[in-house]
Amino acid sequence: MASNYMQFSEAIGNLTEAEAAWITEKLTQLEEAEPDTPDLEDWQKDIVSIGWLGFSWQIEGEGADRQLWIHHGDESGSVEAIPDFICAFLSKFRPNDYFTLEWATWCSKPRIREFSGGAIFITATDVFWHTPETFFEDKKNQLSGLKQEINTL
Fold first, then answer.
1. How far is CA 62 from CA 15, 26, 50, 94, 110, in A?
2. Each residue of 68-95: pLDDT tens digit?
3. Helix (H, G, I), strand (E, B) or coil at 96
4. Which pLDDT band holds residue 11 (cuts at 50, 70, 90)?
5. Range of lowest pLDDT (35-39, 59-63, 77-81, 130-134)
6. pLDDT higher than threshold 90 for residue 100
7. Which of 16, 36, 99, 106 is the least crowded, having the fewest Cβ atoms under 10 Å away?
């Protein structure tokens, strides 16, 4: 049996004490929340509905070196909840900044189309996803005269 994995690692640097406290409060709430937990913000409810946070996190360092490290955890993770969290953080603390994250997906066996990856570009108000699938679709639509893909299953 093959296993599929998603791996990523990124940080938000130069955290203030207020930012670090907010991150710790909000992510701890999410780790402990149930679907009927009262007093969650809308973005938190969206993440709780996914069923798991999908990433590990740590606040590391002090002063100007304080950062939030977001990563896939021990083996594998999910990036699905990251945009909601990052948008909320940017909206509250850094509305003119942006965050980027890349990920790799891979399989423990050499299965066709089981290796990929992607990227997210996040602002306080927008999320832009890029995957190989969207790249291939865009290229197919841009180039005329192509008949069919030859490497199909």
1. 9, 20, 32, 19, 43
2. 999 999 889 999 999 999 999 999 999 9
3. coil
4. very high
5. 35-39
6. yes
7. 36
For residue 84, give every residue at least 6 positions away whose Cβ sits within 8 Å of its Cβ, in sequence order, or none.
43, 44, 46, 47
Q: Which two tokens stand for residue 109?
A: 């066996």
Q: How many angstroms separate the CA atoms of 87 and 12, rounded?
A: 13
The burial of 11, by beta-carbon neighbours within 10 Å (0-12 exposed, 13-18 middle, 19 or more buried), is given as middle
* Rounded CA separation 15/117 (Å): 28
Query: Residue 151 corresponds to which tokens in the numbers above?
Result: 């490497």
Asked whether 27 and 57 are in contact (CB, 8 A), the reply is yes
Global model pTM greater than 0.85: yes
